[in-house]
Protein: EAL domain-containing protein
Amino acid sequence: MDRRNIELKIFGLVAGMAAGMILLAGFALTIAARHADTRERDYEQTLVGNGLRQRAKEIQAALNPYIIWDEAIIKLDNRFDPAWASQNIGQSVGGALGNEVVFVLDADNKSIYGHVAGKDVPPTAYARYGGRATRLIEKVREIEADPKKVAELRAVHRSRVTLVGDDPMLITVSLVRPDLKARTRGPRAPLLVTGTPVADSVVKAFSDRFLLHDARIQVVQDTQLATPAAQRVIGKTADGRRIVMRWTPRKPGEELLRSASPILGAALLAAVVGSILLFRTTRRAVKKLLLSEAEAKHLSLHDPLTGLANRTLFTDRLVHAHALLRRKSGLLGVLCIDLDRFKEVNDSYGHDAGDQLIREVARRLKTICRDTDTICRLGGDEFAIIQPDTTPAGAAALAQRVVEGLSGEVDLTIGRAELSCSVGVAVVSDAEQGQAELLRQADVALYRAKEGGRGRYCFFEPEMDAALRLRKGLERDLRTALETEALKVAYQPLTDARGQIIGVEALARWTHPERGEIAPAIFIPLAESCGLIGAVGSAVFRRACYDSLRWSGLEVSVNVSALQLADPGFVDDMVAVLAETGARADVFMLEITETALLKDSDGVHEALRRLKRLGFRLALDDFGTGYASLAYLRRHPIDKLKIDRSFVSSLPGNSESLAVASAIVSLAKSLGLKTTAEGVETQGQLDALIKLGCAEFQGFLLGRPMPADAIGDVIAGARETVR
Ligand code: C2E
Ligand code: CA
Ligand code: CA
Structure:
């Protein structure tokens, strides 16, 4: 999933959650507020209902003294007295009690007295109000007809609000009853009809009492009775319209909402800010996560030290480039690169210096290669390059650039190191050949480049395979030979000028079960290149130790490879073999080559000093072929120089060789060193060397390398001759 996608998802989630929460809170609050408002309205409606009923009761109660009264029965029913009615009903009920309309009806519901707005009116004026009271009259007469009900009730009243003209009026119909012993003429008593306007002033008093805001009376059609609303139906008109009391309800919920809205707003703001912050942190976290994922991916495909592709990525790219061969016409080149003597840098300067060198190599390779090339560190000091779409000339040019780019001195924090590399190149054009084979071929070519003397590149050629197979087979057989102690040692005599044997040189011999005699010139370098030289040297030394015990007074020379000397465990091994065999160190002359001293490292120097302290003597083998540096001779505790066979073989005729040999002898003399001339094959050579002042000789003329027993015979023979 890509970053944008994840970000969008997270943003959606966060924003959705925030919005959801706010909506929910708002919704809950609104519901609660509306609920509170409804409850308040219901409460107000109940108040209004109760209040109106109360008002009617008050009016009815005020009428009671006038309708429950013997005298009223007598004066209104038994014998109607208009003057009495005017004085006791009109002026009291109308005037004192404040009823605007007062009428008296007889037993037949006929109006017999009227008083409106403070004045007596003709009873016929009742017509204007009669229609409004009909229902109430019927109800009161119904109660009157039921003696049980009449007995229960003290006063019989029925009230309702109705319109008189345009004004709402509370009409009350009351049954006139005796309070003691008066009797009506017939079964029915007179009725008192009163009317009080439910005027605005009344409503106002009412609303003040119940804290109703903006209370008013309205007459509306049924359809206009919007429900629910802050209203109470308090009556009906003759034409069926409703008389309602309306007011502006209190809305505590709404008030709450209003007072809570700043808080809600603040919460909303906080939620918005919070979700933005949350979004930003999650975004950062996602970024980090994706980065670390990319990092992990990079790490899994790259070498952590150099940042170059690792073997996995390399193989991947190689497979890919190889597959492209089917579609494209170009060639695919693979270069295998190996640093020469990297192990020495690591051993003498330490791993940090080794890492530094590797990083420098990577840096240089990056400047050498093109962007389309893949550079890889296969491990250790091995690198490889994939060069897609190339030609043999292009591959050769790149290989040359690599060899040149990775040569010369490199400044490391700890000192300077000499850099050089070997390169193996393989180029393929057809996809039939597998990519693994391509890498193998480059590796074989690299092998050959190293063998051919390092600091160079080599193209793969098919015959290399055969040579390599041979080599691999030989390597395996050498291992077996070491394990089965099949390696033997021959000794070549060293003599003085008279031909007297004064020492021997131990030379390794290997008879291969199928190939027969294999020359040390073949298997010693092989052992060096495959890490077996330590085992070979150790085997020869052990044998030489045992054999040395048989010969007294003979100096035994043993060859030590430069690689052995560089091995930190070498001296300890030598000591261990001495202890194991019981041989003496001072019998031995260790022959080392100049290349062993070339590195001039403290390790080698220390090893030589330790060997000297143990009693070993040291000879410089093949002297004159290498650097022949006087500095080595001064610095290291050398006892002897061995003049290389190449100078000896052209004696005595070659004046140049003669000059070299002469120079070596006088150099040795001036430094107090002995000299041994190697490869003396003719008497002429021997004579020339004796003339130069050389004291020791070695060569076929004086004795070929031979088994230890034969050396014993030579010594015995010599003794006999002397005797
Ligand atoms: P080297 O140390 O120079 O040994 C002397 C070589 O010269 C021997 O060859 C010997 O057989 C040969 N030689 C002696 N006299 C004559 C002569 O008059 N004419 C000719 N043409 N050759 C003569 P070899 O045994 O084949 O050994 C070759 C090289 O292998 C040695 O050269 C030495 O560098 C190396 N080598 C042999 N054995 C060992 C060993 O045990 N350890 C190590 N590190 N190297 C060894
Ligand atoms: Ca030697
Ligand atoms: Ca030699």
Q: What stands out?
A: Residues 505, 559, 591, 621 surround calcium ion (ligand 2) (CB under 6 Å). The CA atoms of residues 218 and 599 lie 121 Å apart.
